Amino acid sequence: MANNQRQRCQNTKHDEDTTLRHVFALGLLLLASTLHASIGDLPDTFSTASPQTEMERAVKHQIDRFVIFPLSENAGNMYGTVDIAYVVNTEGRVVVVASGSRNSDPRDYVVRKLAPIKVGPNPSGLWNISRVRFTFRPE
Asked: Of 21, 80, 93, 121, which one is least surrounded by beta carbons within 10 A?
């Protein structure tokens, strides 16, 4: 009889431990889901991309869009490397401040292609000089 009571006591203790574990796990799950749901409600002020970063991304996109290998021009003279330094003025236009190349044809072509690029206003007027290198060569 004492053996039976001991067995029941151990089973009850095991059931209580299991129940506590389940309650604890359920609480952690509820906490985690609440925190996950609240992250989506954060204000936009926690955005990782600054306006300057977005503008830099827009400039790079426009450069990739406008400056391509010149198929319609005299391709024989359009090989070489062109180094460009540019800024974005307050109106949002790309302004070339320096350009260099051993071959003037691709340099003039790149400067001409960068001239119409406009990415939106840059009201602060602050812009570090950005540098980019273009390499035109046969594939």
From this structure: 21
* 55 CB-contact burial (10 Å; exposed 0-12 / middle 13-18 / buried 19+): middle
Contact between 47 and 97 under an 8 Å Cβ cutoff? The reply is no
**pTM, 2 dp:** 0.56
Report the alpha-carbon angle 100-104-110, nearest 5.
70
Burial class (CB in 10 A: 0-12, 13-18, 19+), 56: middle
Identify which has the larger pLDDT, 99 or 6. 99
Question: Which residues are paired to 88 by β-bridges?
Answer: 94
Residue 138 makes CB contacts below 8 A (sequence gap 6+) with 79
State the chain's mean pLDDT as an integer. Answer: 75
Spatial CB neighbours of 40, under 8 Å, sequence gap ≥ 6: none
